[in-house]
Amino acid sequence: MIGSCAPPFGGIEVHIKRLADVLEKSGIKVTIYDIENVSESSDRRLKKIARAKLWVLWYFFTIKEDIIHVHTLSWKHRAAMTFISKVRRKKIILTFHSFRYEIENMGFWEKKLARYVLKNADLIIAVSEKVQEKLELWGCSKDKIRCINGFLPQTAGKGILPEYVMEFIAAHEMIASANGSNMNFYRGEDLYGLDMLVELCGRISQKYDVGFIYCISKGYINNLDYYEHIKDVIREKGIEDRFLFVHENLEFEAVLKKSNFFIRPTNTDGYALSVAEALYSGVPSIASDVSRRPIGSILFKTRDSEDLYQKTVELIDNIEEHEKRLNNLPKEENTELILKVYKDILGKEG
Known about the structure:
alpha/beta, Rossmann fold, 6-stranded parallel sheet, 14 strands, 40% helix, globular
């Protein structure tokens, strides 16, 4: 597999780690090549690559694996792995965890790389119908796309929360959790909706005792000016004791287990593994309607603060009913679908 492995605990990193567990359990040997050298994991299957260009050349001549499964977002890395697979007669799978590109905004060579990848990949996994539609729009054959969201359930322990987080949880009647993989903007607005969460916390605090926990690893804070601005807003609203940033590399499931509800106010998204994780854990979840969400999600209009507030108030006032509703929903499970992809690409039955 080409990609990074948790920690840090971003959605893609967690997916890769859990997928590796699933494949090994089924008897498939796995090596994870962190071609971008960002993993902080000590996973025995992980190989950190310090010099990507030299490694790609070395890998071209020494590849031993039967399948290359690419998760990286880089078109250069996708194209390099696709080329290796074709020349060395290997199979290649590419998972598109999101697809925010607009082809008209891409440069000439990037367009060439994208079209080469989509034409020559053996199989492509799209994590949502929206991603699949965009891949088809770009010329990818529908026959080679499998639409499978990226959620795989946790297979190991649940992790331990730091003492200061446990103290924050104990200080409030209810806990709302959220997370983000960066502090990017999309079409001029906060991609992960952190600004909306701060505004919501300020309004909700006037009526309810809810503590907000926002998880983002330190290494993912790629816009320090915006981060400081958000902290200034929190101070101005007087909610420092109600809004907690958690920067440690934690399994987010450990936070969810202590949460009363989860919020995903993104303005663009793939499938959103965190929403699926929350619902799987029995935690009611509010999410923007920007993409298809897992069954059981409570939807609000994207970037509509008033609608988010109203949906949150309704959830808090009826939290027990929402929890019971989730208990009656089927648990989402993609393990067998992913294993079938591997069987299919190797020409096996199943």
